[in-house]
Amino acid sequence: MSPILRLLIHRLALSLLVLAGVSILIFFVARVVPGDPARIALGPNAGAEAVEALREERHLNDPLIVQYGWFLRDLAGGDLGTSLYTRRPVLQDIAAYLPATLELVFIAGLMMVLVGLPLGRLAARHQRRGPDHLARFLSVLAVCTPAFVWGVILQLLLAYVWPIFPLEGRLSTGVAPPPDITGLYTVDALLTGQFGTMLNALYHLILPATALALSGIGQSARLTRSSMIETYRKPYIEMARAYGFKEGRIARRYAFRPALIPTLTVLGLDFAAMLANAFLVERVFVWPGLSRYGVEVILRKDLDAIVGVVLVIAAMFLITNLVVDLIVSIINPRLRLAEKRGK
Amino acid sequence: MADPVLTVRDLHLAFRKGRQRTEVLHGISLHVNAGEKVALVGESGSGKSVTAQLALARLQQEKGTEAEGLIEVLGHDATRSPARIAAMRGHRVTMIFQDPTSALNPVFRIGEIFEQVLRAGGQRLRAQEARRRAEAALAEVQIPDPARALDSYPFQLSGGMNQRVMIAMALANGPELLLADEPGTALDVTVQAQTLRLMDDLVTSRGTAVLFISHNLSVVREFADRVYVIYRGRIVEHGRTEQLFSDPRHPYTKALLAAAPRLLGGGLPDLPQGAEAFADPLLVHDGCAEPGEVTA
Predict the structure, then answer these.
(1) Which of A201, A210, A226, A254 is 20 to 30 A from B175 via CA?
(2) Which of B105, B117, B156, B213 to mutate to test the interface with A (most CBs of A within 10 A)?
(3) Closest among B98, B240, B104, B74 to B169, alpha carbons compared
(4) Which part of the chain is the ABC transmembrane type-1 domain (chain A) (predicted)?
(5) How far apart are CA A112 and CA A216, in angstroms?
(6) Residues B82-92: pLDDT tens digits?
(7) What is the pLDDT of residues A150-192, one digit of tens each?
C-alpha cells in the first residue's frame, strides 16, 4: 500500500473518531445549557399543554442518555433531526445554507493563497527594504482589523462612495439563481452555461470574500515571510547561490517549496476557521450562509440544528486538515518516503 | 609561472553593525595559480571562510560589509564587478561545503538540483542531455547506481554519497577554480578521507585549481601544494607544503603543528590563547612570494 493511501485511511479513521467525540460533546453541552427549547420555539403566548406536547414529541422529558439513543437511531438512518426554528429537517437546512458559505470561504481561501503567499515571498526576498516594509505594514493592518470591520469599510468605500461592487446578497435583483446542482451559484451557472449569472455571482462574492480573507492574507504573508527568511539561511540556499541559481528561481521554487511546509499547516487551520468566522461577514453582507444559520439556532436553543451545524463545521475542519496533510506529504518527500526507508 | 586564477592583495574586511565595527581581515594577500592546490589553514574565526565568500562576490553587497583591497577571480575584480563573478558561479568557479547533506535541498531530487547546476551561467540544455551528463558525472565519482542516485532525495543517501554528489556537481561544468570550504568536516573521518582522495584525484587529473580551506593540518599535508597559515585575520606563514611541515617558522604554525593530535589528526587542538608571539609578522618561505613581489 502506498504511504499516501495509508496516511489517508489512517486520517479518515481518526476523523470519524473525532466527529463521534464532537457529536457527543455538543449533544450534551447543548442540552445542559438552561432554557426550554420547546418554550422558545412556541413563543411566550403558547399554552403549557402545547409546550408539554412538543417536549414529549421531541423526547425532551427523557433522561439525557435515552435522548442520545434517539439521536443515534436517527443518525443511523441519515437523519439529523428537525429544526424547531425553520421546521424543516436539519439536513435540508444545511444543504440550503452551506453552499453559500462554502462559496465565500473557497474564494477567500483562494485569495489567501494567491495574494498572501506571493506577498510574503516578496517581503522575504527584499528583507528590510522597501517592499518588505510595505508588505509587513499591510499584513499587520490586515491581521489586526476584524473581518466585519473590513466588511463595513469595503461596503462603505467600494459599494457606497464609489459604487463599483454590489452592497449585499448573492445575486442582483432580477437575476434568477441557476438550477440547484451543487448550490454554489458560480459553479452551477458555469455548468448550465449561464455565464452572465456566473459573472454576477462572482461579482457579488468579491467584497465579502475580501473582507473575510484579509486577515488570512495578512497571516499567510507573515508566515510565509518568516518561513522563507529562515529557509534563506539554510546551507542549501548558500549552495544554490554559490552555483549561480537565479535569485528569482530560488525565491519561487528552491527556497519557497521547503518554506511552504510549515506555512501550509497553519494556513489549513486558518482556512477552516473562516467557516466559523464567516458569521459576521455574512451578517454584514446579508449572505444566506451556514454561519448565520448557526448563530440563529444557537440563540434559539434549536437542539438538533445546533448539533448538525457543529458537526458540519467539525467535518470541514477535518477535511481541510486532511487535504493540507496530503499536500504537505506531497511537497515533503521525507513524510512520503518515511515508510519505505524504515523497511 | 602560470597565471593566478585567484589573487587577493592587501584585503581588509570589516563588519559594521550599528556603531560596532569588527575588523575580520587585516590586509591578507594570497594567490592560487591555475591548476594549483593551495590550502588556507587556521582556527575557526580566523577569517578563512569569509575569504571564500568574498572570492565568490557573495559578501560585498551585504549591508554592513566593508571590503577593501583587491580580489581578482579569473581576471575579474570581485569588488568592482561582482556581476561578472556572479555569472561565473557554478561553472567557472564552484564550491564544496562542510556538510554535503545540508547543502542539498531536502525537498528536491538530486537529479533536479543537478540539472540546475548544469545550467549555471545560463547554459541552455535539454532535460535529457542534462540527465545524461549528470549520470556520467556521478559515475565519475564512483557512485554505483547513478540513475538511482539522481532519482533519490538527499536524505535517502548517506553523507559520503552526498559528498560524492557534491564533488560531481562542483566539477561537472569543468571549473577553473574550486573553493573547498572545510569539505566534508561534518562527515566521519574515514568517509571524509575517502571523498577527499577522490576529489584530489579528479582535480589533479583535470588540472582544476583549488583553494582548500581547512583547520585540519594532516588533511592539508596530504592534499595541498602550498599552504597559507592564517591567524586572526592575518596570514602568518606561507610556504610550500613540504617546507612548512619540515621547517615551521612562525610561532603560531609551530604551536599548531606541535598540538596536532597524533592519531589520524582530528579536530583543532587547544592552543594557548592569544600568545603574544602569534602576532609576529608574516614569514614567507623561499620562492613563495606573491606575484608582483620580489623574492627575498
Answers:
(1) A254
(2) B105
(3) B104
(4) 98-328
(5) 6
(6) 888 888 999 89
(7) 999 999 999 999 999 998 888 888 888 888 888 888 889 988 9
Cβ-Cβ pairs closer than 8 A, A with B, add up to 71
A236 shares contact with chain B (CB less than 8 Å): yes
B222-B223-B229 Cα angle (round to 5): 95
Regarding whether A102 and A227 lie in a shared domain, the answer is: yes
Is A331 within a domain?
A: no
CB contact under 8 A, B120 and A242: no
Same domain, A212 and A117: yes
Residue range B232-256: mean pLDDT, rounded: 90
CB contact under 8 A, B104 and A236: yes
Listed in sequence order, the DSSP H helices in chain A are 3-32, 37-42, 48-57, 64-76, 90-111, 117-125, 130-144, 147-154, 185-191, 195-232, 235-242, 247-249, 256-284, 290-299, 303-331, 333-342
Q: Which of A76, A111, A138 is the last residue of a domain?
A: A76
Asked if the structure places residue A327 within a domain, the reply is no
pLDDT at B261: 58
B chain contacts of residue A241, beta-carbon cutoff 8 Å: 58, 89
| A114 and A63 within one domain | no
Which grid cell is A336?
A: 512520503
Edge-to-edge strands, sheet with B76-77: B20-33, B4-17, B65-73, B76-77
Interchain pair B97, A241: CB under 8 A: no
* Domain count along chain A: 2
> What is residue A175's predicted lDDT score, i.e. its pLDDT?
86
CB-based contact B107 A245, cutoff 8 Å = no
What is the distance in angstroms between the Cα of A235 and the nearest Cα belonging to chain B?
5
Residue range(s) defining the domain that contains residue A43: 3-76
Regarding whether A10 and A153 lie in a shared domain, the answer is: no
Residue B240's pLDDT is: 94
Determine, for residues A243 and B120 on separate chains, whether the beta-carbon distance falls below 8 Å: yes
The class (CATH top level) of B4-67+80-104+175-263 is alpha beta
In the numeric block, which cell numbers belong to residue B26? Answer: 587585516
One domain, residues A131 and A204: yes
Same domain for A268 and A193: yes
- Indicate whether A190 and A232 sit together in one domain: yes
Residues A67 and A114 in one domain: no
Domain assignment present for A122: yes
Where are chain B's structural domains? 4-67+80-104+175-263
CB of A331 within 8 Å of any CB in chain B? yes
What integer is the mean pLDDT of B122-138?
92
pTM: 0.83
Question: Considering only CB atoms, which chain B residues are within 8 Å of A257?
Answer: 107-108
B230 Cβ contact list (under 8 Å, min separation 6):
B28, B40, B41, B42, B46, B47, B48, B236
CB within 8 Å: B90 and A261: no
Q: Is A235 on the interface with B (CB under 8 A)?
A: yes
* A318: in domain: no
DSSP string, B119-139: TGGG----HHHHHHHHHHHHH
Give which of A234, A236, A250 to mutate to test B binding, by max B Cβ within 10 Å: A236
Can you tell me the distance from the alpha carbon of A315 to that of A275, in angstroms, rounded to the nearest whole number? 11
Give the distance from residue B108's alpha carbon to the nearest chain A alpha carbon, in angstroms.
8
Task: Choose among A239, A241, A331: nearest Cβ to B107.
Answer: A331
Instruction: Say whether A242 and B58 touch across the interface (CB within 8 A).
Output: yes
What ipTM was estimated for this complex? 0.87
